[in-house]
Amino acid sequence: MVEFCPECSSLLRKKLLDGKSYLACICGYKQEFGSNKDEIQKNIQEKKQALDDGLIIVSEKDKISVHPLVTRECPKCKHNEAEAWQEQTRSADEPSTSFFRCVKCKNTWREY
Ligand SMILES: [Zn+2]
Ligand SMILES: [Zn+2]
């Protein structure tokens, strides 16, 4: 942020006086520099917001389109993260089958 002196149009310089920031000019003009802090705060807020938004989108997508991720080593590429879900086999007295799909190579396998 560059500010110019309203008195003489020189470039204002940041100065710290009594713990407060000022924009000061060589002509003696100075103004309190409070807005800078707000500006930074605002930037942080916006970044946080963007991050939150991103996370929300990711988690929503996860909920809708993919199965929960579990730690499972892919037999094909050895990546250790896979989607997991279960499917009931034809007869109800048989145990359900667990399916896994590698998040990296999309290899699908099952465990009984
Ligand atoms: Zn000035
Ligand atoms: Zn894999």
Briefly, what is this?
The protein contains one helix and seven strands.
Number of domains: 2
Number of helices: 1
The main pleated sheet reads as: 4 strands, antiparallel
- Span between termini: 64 Å
Which geometry do the CA atoms define? rod-shaped
Work out the radius of gyration.
29 Å
- Give the spatial strand order of the biggest sheet: 4-5-6-7
The top level CATH class name of the largest domain: Mainly Beta
Supply the helix-strand structural class: alpha+beta
CATH fold category name of the largest domain: N-terminal domain of TfIIb
| H and E order | EEEHEEEE
**Beta-strand content bin:** 25-35%
Average of the residue pLDDT scores: 80
How many extended strands? 7
Low-confidence stretches: 56-65
Q: Percent of residues in helical segments?
A: 25-40%
| Cofactors, ions and other ligands in the entry | zinc ion
CATH-defined architecture of the largest domain: Single Sheet
Annotation keywords:
N-terminal domain of TfIIb, 28% helix, 7 strands, alpha+beta, three-stranded antiparallel β-sheet, binds zinc ion, rod-shaped, 2 domains, 28% strand, 112 residues
Give a topology summary.
Elements: E1 13-17, E2 20-24, E3 30-32, H1 35-65, E4 69-70, E5 82-87, E6 97-102, E7 108-111
Antiparallel strand pairs: 1-2, 2-3, 4-5, 5-6, 6-7
Bound molecules: zinc ion (2 copies).
